[in-house]
Design brief:
It is built from twelve helices and ten strands. It is α/β, with parallel strands linked by helices. The strands form two sheets. An eight-stranded mixed beta sheet has the order 1-4-6-5-7-8-9-10, with helices on both faces. A two-stranded antiparallel sheet has the order 2-3. Strand 9, helix 11 and strand 10 form a beta-alpha-beta unit.
Length: 350
Amino acid sequence: MIVNDYYSEVNHGPYQLQDIGDLVLEEGGTIRACQLAFATYGKLNEAKDNAILITTWYSGTSKIMADVYVGPGRALDPAKYHIVIVNQIGNGLSSSPHNTAGPGGMARFPKVRIGDDVQAQHRLLTEHLGIERLALVTGGSMGAQQTYEWAVRFPDMVQRAAPIAGTARNTDHDFLYAETLNEAIWSDPGWRGGWYRSGADVAAGLRRQARLWAVMGWSTEFFKQEVWRGLGFSSLEDFTVNFMEGYFLPMDPNDLLCLAWKWQRGDVSRHTGGDLAAALGRIKAKTFVMPIDEDMFFPPRDCAAEQALIPNSELRVINSLGGHLALFGIEQAYKDQVDRHLAALLATPV
């Protein structure tokens, strides 16, 4: 285990931890006494029909999801809904390589799939929180992968689904990109095969990863129009160092690798022998597929091709110069669009 103060309640709280027991994984490993970190907002009503699940993305935690997507007067209003945000396995708060004791921690942490996250979340919701129906499941990027998995695996439980900036089956392009993120870490001599003493030993690799994210995470127009100036940065280098590197440098390399491995392999069609149309055809939820127009990871055409396979679904494109990382909520216009679409979805009878 490694102590990393970045993954503390001071930085990412408040949240609760729930031991859901041993979690046997799709790849054959087991996370013993699996811990899920989660945050809740609002109360479950007497009918128990106002629960909303929000899932997290690569590197993200429940805090950024709450800060950007939840609040009074928003579509996801705690005065109306019981909102549960669950941190995915490997994100540093839930069971992860860096916080798991040996011999199964660090580089020996078992391989986790998106389906394992959803099974763990299902156990948390049904066995510990008393939730049997979900008015909505939503999340961005890897959170969208989990949203699709929920809608396909538990079609009778999920009433509405809103995958944002993500796909149901990962593309070859995304697989290769995530591999470059991994190689940025693996190529750092301080990596030591995953047995570093501190994430700071892999700082050069984390810096390279941050710059790769800067290239692909934001849109070309974001840089052409120098949108970063509006965020308070004086130069491109200032933005790259103090925003992008500042974001990734405190993180644990093994945790990021755990997340990337399952991101690369996200694919609901494994439930139907590789037939994506058959898998998406299982979805009963009213679904809004919500790509971001300038996203270089998950362009609208990829999301639209999947949306066409989902019964009772709509394509709702979000416009933002932020590209994929518009998910961070740097633009009020982005948040307004998300709220408008989610409010419309929640108002749709099911």
